[in-house]
Amino acid sequence: MKKVLIISSSLRNGSNSEQLAASFADGAKSAENEVEVISLRDKEISFCTGCLACQKTQRCFMHDDADAIREKMLYADVLVFATPIYYYEMSGILKTLLDRANPLYSSNYRFRKVYALATAAENEKHVPERAFSGIEGWVDCFEKAKLVGTLFCGGVNDSGEIKDNPKLKEACEMGRNI
User: Fold this and answer.
1) Distances in Å between the alpha carbon of 130 and those of 89, 126, 127?
2) Global pTM exceeds 0.90
3) Which of 81, 126, 155, 163: CA 20 to 30 A from 60?
4) pLDDT per residue over 41-79, tens digit each?
């Protein structure tokens, strides 16, 4: 049994990326993993100031919702980031959270596998490349971790448009096989 933390970064309730994350969670749960899904929708997460004090203290001097999320990230075996694609990039709140997760860099983090899920209105193959590259860049800073899977569902814009999309089954299967 693995401890799986899924972070959904859409600010829209019932969004397509949130539904993709829920499908991944269903798959992971069906394989008897411990799964927690966190939505960043109502979280207060301030921007990193780049002071790097966290590299010595393993804590950020700012205290907001990033503290509790970072603590959960520290003890997860598997991290999953779900994001809508905005202007060919991950959501701003996800990028802000990744920046604020900097104290993890010098910690004894437990995660080894990281997955990235994304949705977008556009459906071309290149659409998620920058978002996935940004997530992979963050993961590359953690020598014991690896981005082991990505899943993109394009052609969905309005909330709920992903319903009955075959990518939901792929996300479920990906979660089941972690």
Assistant:
1) 5, 8, 8
2) yes
3) 81
4) 999 999 999 999 998 898 999 999 999 999 999 999 999
